[in-house]
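Reopening this ticket.

The earlier resolution said the output was attached, but the attachment link was broken on my side. Pasting everything inline this time so it's all in one place.
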Amino acid sequence: MRPAAQRQWRVGRPGTGGFTLMEVLVAVGLLAMLSALMYQGLVLSFRARERIARVEEINHGARMALRRIVGDLSMAFVSNHMNREEPATTTLFVGQSDSLTFSYLGHERRRRGAREGDQGVVEYRLGRDGGGLTIERREKPLLDTDPEKGGTVETLVTGVQEFRVRYWDAKAEDWKDEWKVRMEDALKAGKAGDAGKYAPVLTPTGSALQKASQQKMLEEYRLPERVYLRLVLVDDEGNRFPFETEARVHLVFPLAY
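Inline output:
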């Protein structure tokens, strides 16, 4: 059996086990460097993921808003069947460069027993949410004498920088910044029994010449065949996201009912 002193000398001999202080410091330095690189990579990955999510959210919001506007515009209409004793049946299409108000056939009744039909008035306009712009949709389920007031307002999309609307004039073959059709004006322009001028209400028993004259005058109250929509959204970093589309109006001429 070896002496205890010899065993202690073997245990304390260099190279038999453990790390020197320099080796520990080098290992700790390498570990810290690798951890910093991994952390930086994770941070960049999370930032990219958040940015992609924001872009997808902006794209989704813009597509849904434009799809809603296009769908409503496709069902826009005006009617020349107006009762002088009940002006609440008048219809309109008033378009500005940054807003729209029109009667349409796309209203959905959402309350059981509600005295509503498929006709209504819808408006798209710019609003404010805090310090930013939004697009608001106002819907009025019943036609009345004041279609530009009342109804339910909802916000379609936020972060709006620009909302522009233009209207295609098929006769002039050019785009216009405004388009105004109020069948109430047609009612005021006509005189009952004055066949030589313009009577706004078409009568089935009228002469063919009178009907042709009335139909020609009704062209003044036609709707645009196409509506151009441009929407520009902006994120928190100031990046702009432009979107453009066109809506086709199917019922261009006033309806005869």
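Reporter confirms the inline version is readable. Confidence is low (pLDDT under 50) at residues 191-205. The longest strand covers residues 152-169.
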